[in-house]
């Protein structure tokens, strides 16, 4: 095989494996997406006792097929990538590696069945596939909105953690062991369960004073839940706005999408 | 009966059955709405043991009256429709059919009482009636907002499903059978119950590590609940906006509120 | 007492009782607010068994003092009002009457202690007092936002009721009596508890199929909770906007509150 | 030591202790932040029975180190402050004092372990440290949004309290002692647990009428949760907006985005 034809092969593989603007590339992505979904399904089903009893050999065979496929795919990615090491240490590169490594480890170590869970991260690969489609733009808007909100969210989380620690300590003193508030960490766990409105009910206040404090925490939590929602709404509105076309003459955002004239200066944006 | 008079009869029935801009049409819709509500009430009450014991014969009679009425109505719709087959295979046409079919099936098959539930879809017919009123516009705004959000919501749901699967698998390893985390699907069910802040408490973590992981999941869920709210708020604001002032020249909605030029035809709306 | 002096007395009482722009009027409102709060506190405490055992005579005395005070106040309102009947049949007039009627009924009928609960509506009178203060404007913005959202909310509630009925019926068939889904109304109650994310856990699915359906309902409920929030946010933003000052020259809303020049046409709004 | 050199020392301490724009100041803040976190961790761990059994002497030593450090720090702050009394009675001054006082009290009074919880307020000091960084701006936006919403939130909370009291009283009458609704306060506690969608399930309705009322409360709560979210979203959008473009002539924020004239001084910002 000559160097040019080898180069051409690598380029062809690259186009199929990394991109999705050709028929073959789209097919590859679709097959991979299904393999990921099926491999997770097989791990999930293996954990069901009644299923494991009846179909364990079939699950094992299926898992080795998935492992082989993912190993082969990883090899092709490393081979065809222009900068292999950059791919290997990228976020998706590491996830691709973790998608099949635990399966090989399970041969050497009997207890490696616990590591199988890492394989669930394969699901995240779906995003890489989606990244190549129109979902990318929407994902970027969401990411941009969350990034712009990060300081507000840190301030918010610090307040929540402080509140939960103080209320947790107070409840530990008020309620005590009888009600299930056996330690401050346990009380903090209860306070988080309450403030997030999850409310399992595995621990709940039994004394009048504890119930009053719990009621105050719930009403506060009620108001607090409004804050992250407000933050994300505002940033999402801004990120959506910023992704909009602007008038080349006056820089006013163009409304609605695909408008023919600028609403501020009347400049014609596209021919009728 | 001559052909023209038959044609006139079909047109009259069409106006009463399909439209609601005449007195008779509005009365028909109102009677139908009440029949639907009463028929669902009768199915619901039949399921209550104490009620079934005392009033079963009355319920049965009532149900057959409803079934006859809905069958008759379906016949009238097919007869009067200009394109009968198009109606039969439309969304509302199928719901109209499913509204009485299970009742007839229950004569042939003893176990058909399970199919009676399909009759609950009759409630959706309320929307068709509402569609003819001023609710239509509001419903369209909601529908448009949800449609515009669909890609963002798919990205969001994929993230949630990935998160729930990974956390579910981790909790299965950490907690194990004693705490009720008997399989990964069971753990995923618990993770969904937790992240959506429902929190039944039928399964809840018992180990310190499990409680820490659950706390992290709750706080994440707390932040995540903000995302769909933000998405729908932003799109709803846009959809509401789009239903505003229209250009007197080309009927395009005017953006933004108080814009000086129409964004579609460039007509000056207000003097500078 | 002459007619003019009687008229003057009625006017003075009116100013004190119905308005709060004088010292005496404000004092009257404040005393009334405290009487309402104390009377509700006494009803609430009476229901606590340990408290009733020790302090019943005191509570009874206190309640008769409150009843006398509210009766007297009602008399003054009817006497001083310009259109007594209009007051009597107004919303607040009826609440004022219901604030003391049950107390008198409890003399005639032994079981009238059940009617005492109506007295809790006295709390709503707080709004009438607040209405006369700066809270009025904020309350009107909230009311306007909710009123503008009413059709959207009706469409939304109809969807939720339909969904809850259909899911309730399905869960009744899938889960059955063993899991606590004893009838369709019971299942609908469970579906409401789930979709609103309350999640008591008194009834929860036990079968795999039931858990899958419950998971779907929870995720849907997750998305659905976004809709009313979005609706209210949008309308609240609009109502807040509409309560803003507009430029007399170009009708553009004035930003920010108390701005000196219009941001659109530069017209001077207030002297520097 | 001369007066000028003492003055210079005080100024140097002030710069390190109160400010964070020097290397030493930033290091001081960082060390303090870690001391606060470690001291809270030690209080939290002391409450865990298994941990207390094994490591109590070490915890005690650690706590005395923290107490000494915080006492020293308090002394330095009082010594270096230009207006010592103003600092002592400020919010953070009081929290600094409460951070070590309970530890000394525990020598005199055996039961002072209950007062140790006040030490958890030390976590709030994190905000003072954060205040000196870029988080300050975000915190101010959140604070400004919450402040602007305060009347709306009071109106909202009054409505919730009225609703919860009336529903609580009704449920007490309907359900009674058997279902756990032992008094009106207990029923109000249940109503708060329900309306905030926490839903522990320690108390839940058992009668059909009670379940219907509970369902109504949940659906209302569903709509009500939208109100504070909407309020905060709207105010947050306004507060975020206010932190935007400023007029080059008078430094007033420019409204709305892209406005042509400054709303304060009338300066033309962009050509028409």
From TrEMBL, chains A, B, C, D:
Matches recorded under InterPro entries: Ion_trans_dom, VG_K_chnl, Volt_channel_dom_sf
A Gene Ontology molecular function term of the record: voltage-gated potassium channel activity
GO annotation, biological process: action potential
Compartments in which it is found: Membrane
Protein name: Ion transporter
Pfam families: Ion_trans
Keywords: Ion channel, Ion transport, Membrane, Potassium, Potassium channel, Potassium transport, Transmembrane, Transmembrane helix, Transport, Voltage-gated channel
Membrane topology: Multi-pass membrane protein
Domain called Ion transport: residue spans: 26-243
Protein's organism: Hufsiella ginkgonis
């Amino acid at each position: 095989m000559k160097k040019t034809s080898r180069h051409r092969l690598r380029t062809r593989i690259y186009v199929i494996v990394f991109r999705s603007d050709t028929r073959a590339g789209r097919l590859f992505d679709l097959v991979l997406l299904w393999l990921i979904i099926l491999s997770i399904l097989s791990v999930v089903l293996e954990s069901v006792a009644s299923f494991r009893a009846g179909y364990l050999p079939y699950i094992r065979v299926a898992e080795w097929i998935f492992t082989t496929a993912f190993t082969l795919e990883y090899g092709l990615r490393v081979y065809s990538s222009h900068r292999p090491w950059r791919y290997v240490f990228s976020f998706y590169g590491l996830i691709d590696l973790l998608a099949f490594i635990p399966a090989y480890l399970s041969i050497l170590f009997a207890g490696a069945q616990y590591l199988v869970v890492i394989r669930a991260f394969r699901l995240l690969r779906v995003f890489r596939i989606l990244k190549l489609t129109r979902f990318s733009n929407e994902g970027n808007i969401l990411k941009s909105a969350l990034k712009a909100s990060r300081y507000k969210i840190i301030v918010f989380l610090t307040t929540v953690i402080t509140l939960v620690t103080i209320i947790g300590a107070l409840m530990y003193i008020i309620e005590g062991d009888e009600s299930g508030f056996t330690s401050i960490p346990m009380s903090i766990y209860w306070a988080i369960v309450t403030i997030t409105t999850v409310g399992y009910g595995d621990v709940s206040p039994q004394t009048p004073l504890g119930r009053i404090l719990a009621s105050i925490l719930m009403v506060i939590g009620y108001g607090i839940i409004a804050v992250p929602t407000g933050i994300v709404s505002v940033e999402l509105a801004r990120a959506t706005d910023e992704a909009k076309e602007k008038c080349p003459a006056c820089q006013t955002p163009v409304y609605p999408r695909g408008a023919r004239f600028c609403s501020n200066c009347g400049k014609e944006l596209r021919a009728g």
